[in-house]
Amino acid sequence: MESYKIHFTDKNFLISFLGGLLLLGVSLVTQFFINGYVNNLPSAPVTDLILSNIRVYNVGGIFVYGSVLLLFVGLFVGLKEPKCLPFAMKSVALFTLIRAVFVILTHISAFPTQVVIDSPMFDGKFFYGIFTGNDLFFSGHTGLPFLLALIFWDQNRTTRTIFLGFSALFAIVVLLGHIHYSIDVFSAFFITYGIFHICKFLFKREWELFLKN
């Protein structure tokens, strides 16, 4: 509570925090409309070295509920360390916006044998757009936890390991479920690494705040 009192009574922190919240909201709305755009485009699937040689596995439950678990873990870590919130929110927002740009550049439909994501808890157009569709390149489920791992790399070894575990798990799951092409998964690590360093440059003040003891 003392940490919250210190940070949320600081005008500069509040401005940065609210800016991160606004940017994150904009990025999520953008993602929603981009998903709808690419899902309505006529496109065709392509062959894949890995997916074409392994059968599809029913990993829908792990894919969906693992995402929910990642969300709660991310919220817990963020709320535990409020000084990280401005940088983390702005980084996730930029990650989402950059991915949205990548998604609209090339139009490829999902692999024909993609596992059916069927969960009554996540019915509706909004969740369909997040967990299925043609927004393939690059894999957000793989890249986002890797981004969080990079953010906490030198700050908290346990947190870093947890997020790396999520990233590896989702990389395997989306391949086994034929949810993403292999290029979507493997490129996510390289692109996310680049995004992280762009974030450190663009949000230098927020990054320096996060590094303070």
From TrEMBL:
Domain Sphingomyelin synthase-like: 134-198
Transmembrane segments: 12-34, 54-79, 91-111, 126-150, 162-179, 185-203
The keyword Transmembrane helix belongs to this UniProt entry's keyword annotation: yes
Domain of life: Bacteria
Alphabetically ordered keywords of this record: Membrane, Transmembrane, Transmembrane helix
Keyword Magnesium (UniProt): no
Name used for this protein in its record: Sphingomyelin synthase-like domain-containing protein
Organism: Candidatus Yanofskybacteria bacterium GW2011_GWC2_37_9
Lineage: Bacteria, Candidatus Yanofskyibacteriota
